[in-house]
Amino acid sequence: MRILVADDHALFRDGLRSLLQAQDHDVVGEAKNGREAVALARELQPDLVLMDLSMPELDGIGATKLITAEMPNVKVIILTASESDATLFEAIKSGAHGYLIKNLEADDFFALLDRASQGEPALTPALARKLLAEFAKPAAPATPAAEQDDLTAREREVLELMVEGVVSNRKLAKRLGLSENTVKFHVRNILDKLRLHNRAEVVSYALRNKMVDPAG
After folding, report:
1. CA angle 203, 171, 128 (to 5 degrees)
2. Which domains are delineated in the chain?
């Protein structure tokens, strides 16, 4: 399997490359941020991208959206230290073919990679149960168009960045030139106006109701 590794830690990339090569996988490229990952995926057309979430310039969620939208034959598997449920749901909604935690045993890791190569999702049973439970929940009640229109121009800017994969207060603040407290205020207003509970729900709702252009 031809694999592209995207992670901003050089030592982790080195160790992962050695493990993959020991199992006869071909590591065709390495990226240290999300923008590099997208560019190398376009150039190299790997079978699989192992994508970290927290990276500079463009994070793993944003890079996953771009790759899966533009190159549907390239599978993206998130490989991260984050065990956050919201991040898991957001990654899968963004098109990721799997979600693996970095503390996996090597045997389990390679077994899941083999499943991915056969078209199956790369998820541990525990994460698969979380996904099933989340998607089994009743859909959020529809929000009247008038309430969508209540979003201010700045709140729509925040919403568009969240759909692009910029979800942390720090990164939103940096992109918008605002303080983190001001960003928190805008996010809270968005949640209240759309009657939603968390950022993953906001992203899903915005895409489902075409509130923003996902390609933007």
Report:
1. 45
2. 2-135 (3.40.50.2300), 145-208 (1.10.10.10)
Convert the pLDDT of each residue in 40-63 to its tens digit: 999 999 999 999 999 988 899 999
d(CA 9, CA 76): 18
Which single residue is written with the structure tokens 């800017």? 157
Q: CA–CA separation, 126 vs 129, rounded Å? A: 5
pLDDT, tens digit (0-9, with 9 covering 90-100), for 148-161: 568 888 999 999 99
Q: Can you list the pairs that 66-74 forms with residues at least 24 positions away whose Cβ atoms lie under 8 Å?
A: 66/38, 67/37, 67/38, 67/41, 67/95, 68/94, 68/95, 68/96, 69/95, 69/214, 69/215, 70/42, 71/41, 71/42, 71/45, 73/45, 74/41, 74/45, 74/46, 74/47, 74/48, 74/49
